[in-house]
Structure formats: C-alpha cells, structure tokens
Amino acid sequence: MPSDLLLYGVPWPEWLQGAASLPEDPVLRLAVYSAMALGGLTLLVMAQVLVVSELAARRERRQKAFVAEWRPRLVGWTLAEEAPATTPPRREREVLWFLLLWARLHRQLRGVARERLNALFFSLDMTGVVLSMLDSRRAHRRLVALACLGHLGSDRFWSDVTPLLEARNPLVALASAQALVAMDPRRAMARLVPLIARRRDLAMPRLQALCRQAGPAAVTPPLLEGLATAATPHRDRLAALLGGAEPARVAPWARRCLAERDTVSEALCCAALACLGELGDPRDHALLSACLVSDSPRVRFAALRALRRQARREDEALLLPHLGDRDWWVRQAAADSLVGLPGIPRERLEALCEACEDRYGRDALRRAMAEGARP
What we know:
Elements: E1 6-7, E2 10-11, H1 12-20, H2 26-77, H3 92-108, H4 112-123, H5 127-133, H6 139-152, H7 158-161, H8 170-183, H9 185-198, H10 204-214, H11 216-229, H12 232-239, H13 247-259, H14 266-279, H15 285-290, H16 297-307, H17 316-319, H18 328-339, H19 346-355, H20 359-371
C-alpha cells in the first residue's frame, strides 16, 4: 500500500493529528472528556465483574472440593462408636464451610447419629471458634454460630447467647431465640414473651414456629402472664401466639375476654374465639353465638369457625342470616357451617338454597354443597 494513501482526501498524518486534537468549543470539549471518562469507567466495571466472577468461581470450586472431602467423613463418623482423632480445618473460610456442612447434616439426622455429631463437634474443639463468631460484626457468621449452638442444645452456652436477643438485626435476634428454645424451652419462653411484646420487627410466623417448637407447656404460663400485665398495644401481638398454648388453660382468659368484648380489641376477640373453638366445650356455645352479631366481620368469621367444632342441628336458624352477610369470608364460613351441620339432609340444603334471597349467599351455599364441606 502506498505511503501517501489518502483517507477521504486527507493524508494519514494529518488525519491522525486532527483526530487527536480536542475541539476549541468548551461544550464540545466537555462532551469529549465525559465520553472518555464514561468509557474508562465502563472498562473498569467490566474488569471488576470479570475479576469478581473468577474469584467467586474459584471459591465455589474450593468449597465443592471441601464438601466432597469432608461430607463422607462426617457421615462415616456418625456410624462410629467413638469420635476419631483428626485435625479440624484451620483456615477461617474452611471453618465456616465445616460448620455449615455440620449443621446441614445435623438437620437430616435423628437419634444416636445426632449425638455422635455433637460428640465429634466437642472432640474437634469447635466450641471456642463458634463462641468467637458470636462477637463478629458479620451477621451471617453470627447466624451460623447460633445455628450450631441450637443444634447442640446445651444450656452451658445460655449466657453466651442471651445478649443476642437484643440484637438490632431481627434475624440474629430470632436465631438466638431459637437456640435458647432448643436449650431450655420453659426458661426461654419466660425471656421471650416480654421481648415479643415490645419488638414489632420480629416476624410473627417465625415466633409462632418458635412457640410450636417450645411446646404448649412452656408457652402457656408466660403467655397468660404477659396478656395480664402487658400494655394494651402489646396484647394484640401476644394474642397471635395463643395457637401454641394449651386451650384448656387459656379458656378462662378467653371467656373473660368474650364477656367483655365491647371493651377489648378485635384481635383479642378473634384469638379468644379460636381458643374456645379449639377446646370444643359445648358450654361455650352461647358465648360464641353472641359474637355472631358483632360489627366486625373478622369477629363474625372467627365465631363461625369456632362454632363449627360444636355445631348442632338447631344451629340452622343461627347460621342462615349470615348467608346474606356483606363480607365474603363470613358468607363462605356460614355456608360451610350449614353444610357441616350434623344430620342435615341434602334435600334440606337444596331447599335452603332456593329460599335464600341473596344471590351471593346462594352461590356460597352451592359451592359448599359441591365441595361437601365438613368441619
């Protein structure tokens, strides 16, 4: 190619010199600088993504290799009579992988195998590592340590875990509560009920699961005490946990609550109705029936559900008006209760359906009849 080849009629040296020079207009010059900065920043981000991806891939490969090496060992040691003498992992990352693997395997085993895993944990002297992780600023390390202590279930770590109930991170607080329940359910619930009443950032489904884990015998006494002494705004939160208590022991409180239903909150009334419905005592029939005329659709719905456990044939007249209730859930519950009445023939249900003036009530009753609803 000749050296004097022209590009659009301009020699190469002059074209390169023109391309390298900046425009004289300040606005255009700023635009050029911005484009250059944006291009450099894009290249840096691309390089960072590539580096981080490569590091993550290498870490994942190392973790898979670690798990492939240690999982068969842990499984084999659960079958051994005595914990073997071996050297535990020393690197910080490998220790975390070991604890995760140990906790995952612990959830899959029962009985003697779990006890052997716990013996192995102590023989490898991992307690010091786990307790030091409780003071870490990283939440995931605290969560792993709390999970391990919960699987151990030894109250010797009670004083180490208790301060974390006040952690700002709700996940850490819930994990510490779960570990304490595994150590001593009664003692843990006595500490947890006041905490549950005042901390609204703790997820209620997780708290209800904790109550099921602790058992009714551990939940009922502190919960009743909390309902009696807690401030009014906190009682509604405690009432949501009554499903994990003993209905027979909660029944006196529930009856008092329904007797004073005009002065208590909607949530407390619904909790009391659910308790008495679970108990199924026929002596509460009149008290439950009185709640059907409440102004709150939630209370009416809870009363219908509670009555289904002690329904009588003569409750037909009590349930029929609620087929025309303005609330969809109440209409469906009334239809299900009617279909579930003991001894009611299908012919009678069809006659009630034809006589119902509310078309939404007829639809609800037809749906309940088609599904064959039963309590």
